Amino acid sequence: MILASLLVVFTCVWIALTPDASAASEIKKERRSSSMKRTRKQEARMREDDSTKAWLLQYNQLLQIEDHDFAMRPGFGGSPVPVGIDVQVESIDSISEVNMDFTMTFYLRHYWKDERLSFPSTTNKSMTFDHRLIKKIWVPDIFFVHSKRSFIHDTTVENMMLRVYPDGNVLFSLRITVSAMCFMDFSRFPLDTQNCSLELESYAYTEEDLMLYWKRGNKSLNTDEHISLSQFFTEEFSASSGFAFYSSTGWYNRLFINFVLRRHIFFFVLQTYFPAMLMVMLSWVSFWIDQRAVPARVSLGITTVLTMSTIISGMSASMPQVSYIKAVDVYLWVSSLFVFLSVIEYAAVNYLTTVEEREQFNKTGKLSGMYNIDTVQAMAFDGCYHDSKTEMDQTSFSLHSEENSIRGRSTDSPSTDSSQIKRRQSLGEHVGRIILENNHVIDTYSRIFFPTVYIIFNLFYWGIYV
């Protein structure tokens, strides 16, 4: 009886609570349906504003990529498709004289119209895509003539951009680095000016299918104001166009990026021209050394010759092996000739002096009073001039000074200082007179002839090449 009464109570309670639960569930369903209606209204409003925003994720359907064959160029079978080009030069990375090439980094932008990519848009807003869409549509096949290496930058992603407008106009931009040939002329090196160009051309499409042109004429080529090179001034950037003919395929449109480079001369003045001048002037010092100082004059001449050969070798190692003469070669080889002639000049002086002494010995039976056997042997040994008169004068001066020291211990110091000054002056005048009297006539004329001719050569050289 007790269990039966409990069951009756629970049944009554459950019947009383069931209508409240069903009412709560119906309220939740009504709220969910109202939020869904609100979302649908917002989507409908977005479609009314601009279809590109509503279908941005569905660009395949929007651009109708699957409905067209993009292996064919736009307007195939009709007039050539115009492709405009403009370039923003970021930097000229390097110029190599040995390889005769240059490396340039720039932004390359293509402009053309492909009606197959047109899409409806009430606000005429464009859509921008990255490199993933580029492989699915037609793009111009531009390549760089005479290029050695090139690559598209890919940090942090591939530096490529595609922008499509509702009317089918397309902008395709990429950042690229190219190493290309530059046919340089080194006949005036290092006082030269080089004209280089980067050439753009379609690889597959002739002028009947694709027409390349500069988008904004000469203004299509823009450069960074801070472009600088270690050895060159960038004087001029210009854009031009032309045609290229291949016998097997036909005529192609070609665009040119031209730039003029003028070399810095100061580096080569310090590293090449100035050391060469110093070596030539150093070789003239031998004209003032006594003709009997064989070790001094020969060693000086050989040192200057070897130094000039080292300068020439260092310059040749950093230059291409061209078959014509460069401006720096003219200067270095003429300077080497001056140094070499200074050595030959001493050989002539030494030989003529020996011949004169031999003739003098045959006539009188003794050598000239200017030299004796002991003097010549001593000079050949230590490279210094020894004169018996000078040694006698020095001995007499020393004896005279000892005698004065014995006699005049009572004299004061000013008299001693004055005697030493007179002794030094007389020795200096005597040695100078000996050097001037013992000079060969060839040395005398060489002191004037060599500097004069070298100065005239420099005036002509810098007047012609600068």
TrEMBL record:
Major place of residence: membrane
Membrane topology: Multi-pass membrane protein
Gene3D superfamilies xrefs: Neurotransmitter-gated ion-channel ligand-binding domain, Neurotransmitter-gated ion-channel transmembrane domain
Protein keywords: Cell membrane, Chloride, Chloride channel, Disulfide bond, Glycoprotein, Ion channel, Ion transport, Membrane, Postsynaptic cell membrane, Receptor, Signal, Synapse, Transmembrane, Transmembrane helix, Transport
InterPro entries: GABAA/Glycine_rcpt, Neur_chan_lig-bd, Neur_chan_lig-bd_sf, Neur_channel, Neuro-gated_channel_TM_sf, Neuro_actylchol_rec, Neurotrans-gated_channel_TM, Neurotransmitter_ion_chnl_CS
Stretches for region Disordered: 26-47, 400-422
Reactions accelerated catalytically: chloride(in) = chloride(out)
Residues that span the membrane, as ranges: 265-286, 298-318, 330-353, 448-465
Domain Neurotransmitter-gated ion-channel ligand-binding: 65-264
Signal peptide: 1-24
Family of this protein: Belongs to the ligand-gated ion channel (TC 1.A.9) family.
Designated name of the protein: GABA(C) receptor
Organism the protein comes from: Odobenus rosmarus divergens
Annotated gene: GABRR3
